[in-house]
Structures are given as structure tokens and as C-alpha cells.
Specification:
With 447 residues, this protein is α/β, with parallel strands linked by helices. Helix content is 57%, strand content 10%. It is built from 21 helices and eight strands. The protein is globular.
């Protein structure tokens, strides 16, 4: 560990950096209570109040703690969570089994989420076709539906299905090599390989797998070198009848800034979409999730969450995790009054109108700015970025015209608003931190 930082100082600095990335509300709720117990044999041991903390962090910010503390400590570290107080023995055994599976897979260079299996995936009309296609591919990799292209909105289960395919294939055959990668990681590996003149190693790695799973492929849009490498990797694997599975937030025809030959490759096999779940599916998801977490949840609470969370499954499960975390901390049973109190920041209020004033206030609170900063002509990078995000969100969440938005931000013309919105939209395609920032602010405004 870097000798310049004591353990406590290291953790204080880690928390300070994380706070700047995730926003105040998420930080205070989920990160502030965590304690760094010790660093021993290149493993950082973290104490958390209950298991829901680990689950929320792994689902929403899986790498943020490790990457931040590694950067400050100047060495590679593993993370292990320890739960304060007594833990349910049955859940402890499940967690141990999952962690052992994760470690075993990682030893083979396979980085799948062991929780994401077909057994834990709830099937409904909104995802039935994609689920059936994924199951078929898992049973016959390389021969059925190649490539399989799954698309749908954020948090609807694309990543779960892809991991389920990988996990099933690994369980059915120990000799098959499976590689799961986000397109952001793929881009980074291309850049690193080019910079260090290791393209040969890169090609060997990706062209000698039996199953390649690439998540969120839309992030390679506009990245010419990455598209070129992926195109040749795709052709090589396809020619050898190796299975390729791709996910995206939109169908191939709607992915801008990719080559026609790339779009053509994406469309060669089967394209399956996932829609937002119906209330009945959301209810089933909540019950299954609650059962897995040994959380007793009454029917009125289930229907309250299912009918009020409109957007995606990730937010649906996020509500349950937050409710479970709070109930565990205070030792209170889950009921409707507790749910309404704890989830008031997550549950949408359909009748609440969103105004430009509300957007500006939320932006100022999030970035620590004053209202006149957004309306002034000052052009520091921090203020300019915040102003562009505010204009982007106003355009998406209100009925205001471009000219009206410009006027609300100190008399800017509509061309400035168009430019700001375009800049933010382009940055979102390759910046997951910015994506989460905008999602968090939008979520807060809808509450």
C-alpha cells in the first residue's frame, strides 16, 4: 500500500472521490456507512451494515470502490465485504456458494455474474421471446441463432439474460471457453493494445473463444478503430461457427455512427427485443427477489411498488433492496407506511409537473452551484457541463420549446440549446458515470 496514506486517511480519500461521482443522496445512504477494517494480503476488508448494501453496490456501481481505492493505494486489491452483526446462516451459505463460483469462473478467465441464471429470470410477455431465444442459444451454441442480438431499454434484463446464457453453457461443458465483456471494456482494450503495440495478443484473446458475449454494443458508435477490430473479430468467430451474443439499448438499424457492414453483421442472426414489464411480471419479480433475500413483504407493498415504478426492473429491485436495508437497520417489519416513507425518493409521482425551475434547482444541488451560475455567461468547464446537462434534461422532461429553454438559461438562443443537447447525448454513449448522473437527477425530478 502507498506509504503516503494511512488506512483511515486512504478510506476518507476514497469516500471523498466516490461522493463526487455518485451524488450526495446515493453516497450518504449507501457509501457513507461502509468502513474499511483492514488491508491484508492485497485484500481490502469492508464492513457493511447488512447484505443489501453489498447487493446495491454490486448492481449499481460494481467497480467504483475497487478502482478508487486501487488508484489511491497504488496496487491491485481484491474486496471482501463483512456484515456487521449476525448474518442469516442460509443467506451466508448462498453468498459463499456464489462467491466460490465467481472465483472459480475468474480462475478460468470467465467473468460472469453467478446470480444471473435462467432460474432467477422471471419470464413474462414483455421478455418471453428474448428468453426463449437465449435459452435455445445456451442449449446449442454456435448452431442456433448466430449472432443473437438482444435489445431493450436500460434495466430490463439484457445483461441478466446474457449472463444466464454464459452460465448455462459453462455448466453444460467445462471445455467451452466463454468470454463476457462490456463494449466499453472492449474499446479500452483496443486502445491499450494499439498504444502498446499488442494487437497480436488482443486478436488471440478474442478470436480463440467459443462464445463471445458483448454487452451494450451501442458504445462502439463513432469509434472507427474499435469497429474495425470488432468487425474482423466477428467475421473470424462467425466463420468458425462460434457463438456471438450482443446486447444494445436499440435495434441495429437505430444505432448511429456505425458502418453499414457492421449493422449488416448484427442483423444476420436473430434480433429479439425486451419491453418494459407488465404489472403482473413486476409483481412476480418482486416476490422472487424478496424470497431470495429472505425478506417478508406483504401483498399491498408489492403492488404499491409494482404499480408506481414505471421504468425498469433495476429500479424495481432497487426499491426492494432499499426497503430491505432500512428494515434490517431499524429492526422494523415491512409494511405499506414504511414503504411509502423509505421509498418516497424512488417512487414516481405521476401528478407532479416538472418545470425548468425544478431542473435548475436539482442541477445546482447536485453540482454544488448557485442558480445565477447557470444563467450567467461564465464558461468554466464545470459550469458549462452543468448548464448543458440542465438544458438536456429540460428538453427531455418538459414541454418547453428550444427558444423557451434558452431564455430560461440567461437568454441563450435555440442553436445553443441544440448544441448543448447534442453534446450531452454524444457523451452519454461512452460515459457510464455521466449516464448514471443524468438518470439520478431525472429520477429525483420525477419523484
Amino acid at each position: 500500500m502507498s506509504m503516503t496514506l494511512h488506512k483511515d486517511a486512504l478510506w476518507d480519500k476514497t469516500l471523498e472521490i466516490i461522493s463526487g461521482k455518485v451524488g450526495e443522496s446515493a453516497f450518504e445512504l449507501w457509501f457513507r456507512p461502509i468502513k474499511l477494517i483492514q488491508i491484508k494480503e492485497k485484500i481490502a476488508y469492508l464492513e457493511i451494515p447488512n447484505r443489501f448494501f453489498r447487493e446495491w453496490i454490486e448492481d449499481n456501481y460494481p467497480t467504483i470502490i475497487q478502482e478508487t481505492i486501487e488508484g489511491l493505494a497504488e496496487l491491485q486489491l481484491g474486496l471482501k465485504f463483512r456484515i456487521a452483526g449476525k448474518e442469516d446462516e442460509a443467506l451466508k451459505k448462498i453468498d459463499t456458494r456464489l462467491e466460490n463460483r465467481r472465483t472459480k469462473l475468474a480462475s478460468r478467465g470467465i467473468y460472469l455474474n453467478p446470480k444471473h441464471t435462467f432460474d432467477s429470470f422471471v419470464v413474462g410477455p414483455s421478455n418471453q421471446f428474448a428468453h426463449a431465444a437465449a435459452k435455445r442459444v445456451a442449449e446449442n451454441p454456435g448452431s442456433a441463432y448466430n449472432p443473437l442480438f438482444i435489445y431493450g431499454g436500460v434495466g430490463l434484463g439484457k445483461t441478466h439474460l446474457m449472463n444466464a446464457v454464459g452460465n448455462m453453457i459453462v455448466d453444460r461443458s467445462a471445455s467451452i471457453s466463454v468470454y463476457y465483456v462490456s463494449s466499453e471494456q472492449f474499446v479500452n482494450e483496443v486502445v491499450t493494445a494499439m498504444r502498446h503495440e499488442r494487437m497480436g495478443e488482443f486478436k488471440d484473446k478474442y478470436r480463440n473463444v467459443d462464445v463471445l458475449l458483448v454487452d451494450d454494443i451501442q458504445f462502439i458508435a463513432g469509434k472507427t478503430a474499435t469497429q474495425e477490430e470488432f468487425f474482423h473479430t466477428f467475421n473470424d468467430l462467425y466463420g468458425k461457427q462460434k457463438q456471438i451474443i450482443i446486447s444494445s439499448d436499440r435495434p441495429p438499424i437505430d444505432i448511429s455512427d456505425i458502418t453499414d457492414r457492421m449493422r449488416s453483421r448484427f442483423s444476420m442472426g436473430l434480433i429479439a427485443d425486451i419491453q418494459a414489464p407488465e404489472v403482473e411480471t413486476k409483481v412476480a419479480i418482486l416476490y422472487k427477489k424478496a424470497a431470495a433475500d429472505r425478506l417478508k413483504i406483504p401483498e399491498d407493498v408489492v403492488y404499491f411498488i409494482a404499480t408506481r415504478v414505471k421504468s425498469n426492473i433495476r429500479e424495481l429491485e432497487g426499491c426492494l433492496i432499499k426497503l430491505g436495508a432500512h428494515a434490517s437497520l431499524v429492526g422494523a417489519p415491512v409494511d405499506l407506511s414504511l414503504a411509502k416513507a423509505v421509498l418516497k425518493d424512488l417512487i414516481a409521482d405521476d401528478d407532479k409537473p416538472i418545470s425548468v425551475d425544478g431542473v435548475q434547482k436539482a442541477i445546482c444541488e447536485f453540482f454544488g452551484l448557485k442558480l445565477h451560475d447557470l444563467k450567467a455567461r461564465r464558461r468554466t468547464r464545470e459550469i458549462s457541463n452543468a448548464r448543458q446537462i440542465a438544458m438536456y434534461i429540460t428538453k427531455h422532461l418538459t414541454q418547453m420549446s428550444l427558444s423557451e429553454i434558452g431564455a430560461a438559461f440567461g437568454g441563450k438562443d435555440h442553436a445553443t440549446v441544440i448544441y448543448a443537447c447534442r453534446q450531452v447525448a454524444e457523451k452519454r454513449t461512452g460515459d457510464e458515470t455521466l449516464n448514471k448522473t443524468i438518470e439520478n437527477i431525472m429520477k429525483r425530478l420525477k419523484q
